[in-house]
Amino acid sequence: MSATEKYRALIDMAHRHGVANFSASEENGVLTLSGSTTDAVQQEMLKAWQIIDPSLSAGDLVFAITADGQGSGQTYTVKPGDTLSRIAAQYGTTWQNIYEHNRDTIKNPDLIYPGQVIRIP
């Protein structure tokens, strides 16, 4: 099964929601999805991706769909043992997205501390 076939639901979702400048291209078994949309649609697509690939680690999808930056308005207090990846999975987003929205408080995405309050995009 090609990556395009595997992630057909995400492609269809992007078309259904009118993701701006949407592009889907597959090369060497890796599908790249790009475009821009609202935070809500981006989150919905990320949740759908997690259903298809629960660990988000198959390595056959580059998810480059950006959101309008309005965010969810939620915050999260880091607990012992947390990682940005684990927090992102709880909220249906990516660690990169959380990091980008918190660059003012997170200097290194591999170093977060219990008690630290971060914004959830």
Automatic annotation (TrEMBL):
PROSITE patterns: LYSM. SUPFAM superfamilies: LysM domain. It holds the Pfam family LysM. It comes from the Bacteria. Residues 74-120 form the LysM domain. This is LysM domain protein. It comes from Chloracidobacterium thermophilum (strain B).
